[in-house]
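Subject: sequence -> structure tokens, single chain

Hey, anyone have a minute? Need the predicted structure for the following. Not urgent.
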Amino acid sequence: MRQRHLGKLTAGAIGLGAMPLSIEGRPDEARALATVHAALDAGVTLLDTADSYHLPGQDPGHNERLLARALATYGGGTDGVLVATKGGRGRPADGSWTVTGAPARLKAAAEASLRRLGVEAIGLYQLHKPDPAVPFEDSVGALRELLDEGKIRLAGLSNVDADQIRRARAILGDRLVSVQNRYSPETRDSDPELRLCAELGLAFMPWSPLGGISRSSLDGPSGRTADARYAAFHEVARERGVSPQQVCLAWLLSLSPTVLPIPGASRPETIRDSAGAAELWLTAGERARLPRAALPGPA
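Reply:
Had a minute. Here:
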């Protein structure tokens, strides 16, 4: 699989968003583990999780523990696998997603994630979402302290705007390596952040990258009726003999050399198909039929 950079590290150009393995509608553990193992077999080396990926009010950290078991039971090597987790959100019993960015809470969350993952240091730790009740610099300062203490190796942000990326960069320097925002054919309001990440050399990791082609796990079952606005993805897919989802991920990779999509999956065959996008190179003519790239030109 072709590679993308996260600071000085590299990872396969398609990651695995592990959230569907732990929230509502999740598969049984055997299938969940098989899905992670299939991802690793396909060359995926970035596994994205969070402490809040669990059923409402039940079993916090379920997804982190699941990934730890998946890596421990995998038959191949895992030295090159980067587990990226997030802190700063919660899932109470009512099913909502809360936000808590207080430094002490973030640091405690990171300590708990360390224990669940069973590692000496978290490879990539991300602020899950800025807390409007807490000064942004205070939350980012907690990441800096975790870096200085050696409890995390790299830092990232999620659900942020361009100004917040610049402010975090001023605090963390080159130890800030990634930004994870929602981005897909259907949701493209993070174009400014994508462009800034390209300028700064930060990995831009779209979550729910198949919007318009498939539904997000946050939105319900994965089945979706084809939307005429995105017919070109289906047309190119038929011509190439691949899935529309694979064309969508290849399109995302073509936007910038810093894009590293993290599609969710709950079945081995799904992540195998997604991983195939890393080797699907769209022609200039095909790209011209798809939504205009934020950063034109092949990646």
